[in-house]
Amino acid sequence: HEKFGTTHRTSVATTAFVHPFVLCLFGGSVVVKHTERKVLVDGWMELPMAAQVGVFLREIRKQLEVLLQKVFEHSDKRQIEKMDHDMIEGIVSILSSECA
Length: 100
What we know:
Elements: E1 2-5, E2 10-13, H1 20-26, E3 30-33, E4 38-41, E5 45-48, H2 51-73, H3 82-98
Antiparallel strand pairs: 1-2, 3-4, 4-5
């Protein structure tokens, strides 16, 4: 918790650390700055990251958005294809190993 404020008002905020991969997959827009070796998330968060990793995460995110749209349109789990299941398992594996 962080406490801050003015002489007439006090506020308390809660913050949490989020892994850069999670920000790239679920945050705002993702722009890869190849020559600067940075990824810009939502137009203001700069993450130091190799361009190849940034591009990989941006492409995974595009596929994830398509997959989530399918899931929302077809709530019946049996309609999710094996490829989609494998993609979900891959993302879970990446996040589990990198964010642990």
